[in-house]
Amino acid sequence: MFDLTSNNDIAIVHMQHGPANAMDLAFCVELTRTVRELAASSARAIVLTGQGRIYCAGVDLPQLLEGGIDYVRRFLPVLDELLETLFFCNIPLVAAVNGHAIAGGCLLTCIADRRIMGDGKARIGVPEVRVGVPFPTVALEIMRAKTGPDFFEEVVLEGTTYVAHEAQRRGLVDVVVAPEQLLVAAMTAAESLAAIRPEVFSFTNQQARQPVREAITARTKQQETELFALWEAEETHAAIRAYVTQTFKKI
What we know:
10 strands
């Protein structure tokens, strides 16, 4: 599911879960465990990347449809846990976006301290509203924190996906490089962050991200109830089913 290598104590995590790195329960649980173990190890930083033309295609929607309401109730808390673990990781995390990063894939980009994307035809964005599902609080607050303030509502409400330079303008990625330079650039960024005294980096990074933690903590029970009701609704599953059918027609 994940291929781990190391270079000068920089851990490189290659996501290798099926053809599109679709995020199902097993993916979320295993990536959470992997990052926690690396953060507690001698690793000085983490580089997260994908394979081929795909970084991560987001939530495994066919699996969600198959699993129904019970799957949704188990999956959403696990997704939250993954995003919080990565976003508040105590060592530097760099996203090397090698290909399409859609929905959850965009979130697995935005959680990083540095986000580097290869130039080309690959697209990144959060089309959740186009799919017909609402953002969980953790996901929305990460997008709010990491998207350019002038573009936040455009990005989350229009559900557009962008090529690399369009994404950079909107704050979804920091740097765009030639595809063949992607891992080199990611390693350079990881080395630069890892050179900071670890306890200073961790403390400062947690301070910088404190507003997100506070917003997550402030979510109400009513909001959570409404969120689950929307994800579990038959109308939502019908919209997901239509999106999946239309997407597979294009493949």
